[in-house]
Amino acid sequence: MIGVIDYGAGNLNSVLKALTYLKLPARLVTSPKEAATVEKLIIPGVGSFGAALDELRKRNLYQTIDGWIKANRPLLGICLGFQLLFQRSEETPAELGFSLFQGVCQKIRANKVPHMGWNQVKVLQPDPLFSGLPSAEYFYFVHSYAVYKTDGSVLGLTHYGSQFVSVIKSGRIYGLQFHPEKSGSAGLKLLQNWGTKC
Amino acid sequence: MLTVRIIPCLDVDEGYVVKGVKFKNLTVAGDPVELARKYFQDGADELTFLDVGASVKSRKTMVEVVRKISEKIFIPLTAGGGLRSLEDIRELLLAGADKVALCTAAVENPHLIQEASRVFGSQCIVLSIDAARTNSGWHAFIRGGQQDSGLEAVEWAVQAEALGAGEILLNSIDRDGTGQGYDLELLQAVGARVKIPVIASGGAGNLEQIYQAIVAGRADAVLLASTLHYGQMTIPEIKRYLKSKGVPVR
Could you tell me which chain B residue has the CA closest to the CA of A159? Predict the structure, then answer.
């Protein structure tokens, strides 16, 4: 069973809808008790860095996710969920993220912000996550902050203004800056890979 | 490289896709769920649904249309038309929309842009500007293009960005459904003043005009309605053409 973390923002249902479409058993997770019923976790991407951490703390899910990450259990962070895996974000400088990876999310350095639309992910090494997908596939992005520098093991890079980290991995924990649940067939394939192979 | 987005627009009235000319003389052009599926298969980069019925019943139907489509089609969906409050926005986002388009309500209450972007995030708040040329430049019109708000369209775009809008959907009423090409001067005027993406809308009649909206008009995306609904051109044709001209497409 896959659990999708619910922190009370707008369109988190889209990840759940995509998993349902793929016939992968999934449920929303709103409390530590519900988290105990799932084997894999997804932190979807909605809202701002600080607001998301506030909501997670309110629902007592901060400790759950922190423990999950420290135990290297299967987890997928999407967009903001990816950014939360880093130390900090310029969006809310006072807040500390889960700090699995070193690095700071910085305001995107390009003429147009947010970076919104379909862009290519250059996959740096073979991984089951990208099984059956070309190494420069297009995925849907929408974000105003990006990670340009990290010590973490970068799996994918994308260029917008300059090059930023679009996929990162540590053990069984993955982070994606783009939205697989909004990336058509390629995104569904990636979610299926994660659900069944990662 | 970030690609230019091709976005089919479905104007929906009581559950049916309709299309007119200069916002008038609407005719029925198909079933929204079927059209959405066809455009998705053709390679649409996003889909936009605008409720032009503006009745309570029409809006409920719209929520259902969004719900159905979001269970089967996994690309970004924008919904709009007649949204007045945070609750209206929440209802559509929960039904499966990724973004909402605000027009009249934002003009009458600019604070709504600020509130909505704070609660749901800027990325999902699209400001839709229905612009028409007047004696004193472009004005933003409201109520389905029927009423001049008196707001200068370019200044309104700048103000909306400051309030937290994440994207501008720029419709030219003068060109809507005419096939005479996008209003390039309008696109340039707005594009030069905002940093958020601008979607060109109104007037597409041939491939070259779409190319011009991107190259001369500097549009980040193009919205297409009648020309796709009536089969005058297809999304694969558009993408092939743009690619041959060196425009990045998916």
Answer: B1
Tokens 């420290």 belong to which residue? A70
Active site residue B176: no
In sequence order, which residues have a C-beta less than 8 Å from that of residue B175 and are 6 or more positions away? B181, B182, B183, B202, B203
Does residue B250 sit within a domain?
Answer: no
Is beta strand A145-147 parallel, antiparallel or unpaired with respect to A2-5? Answer: unpaired
How crowded is the C-beta side of B161, counted as CA atoms within 13 Å? 20
Q: What is the pTM of this model?
A: 0.94
B124 neighbourhood in chain A, CB within 8 Å: 10-11
Q: Could you report the per-residue pLDDT of A119-174, keeping only the tens digit for each?
A: 999 999 999 999 999 999 999 999 999 999 998 899 999 999 999 999 999 999 99
| Contact yes or no for A116 and B197 at CB 8 A | yes
Complex confidence, ipTM: 0.92
* Domain coordinates in residue numbering, chain A: 2-197
Calculate how close chain B gets to A59, using CA atoms only, in Å: 18
Residue-wise pLDDT for B175-223, tens only, equals 998 899 999 999 999 999 999 999 999 999 999 999 999 999 999 999 9
Nearest CA to B45 out of B178, B245, B214, B187 is that of B214
Q: Is B249 a domain residue? A: no
Best mutation site among B2, B7, B92 for testing chain A: the one with the most A CBs within 10 Å? B2
For domain A2-197, the CATH superfamily is Class I glutamine amidotransferase (GATase) domain (3.40.50.880)
Cα B57 to Cα B86: distance, rounded to the nearest angstrom: 19
Q: How many CB atoms lie within 10 A of CB A33?
A: 10
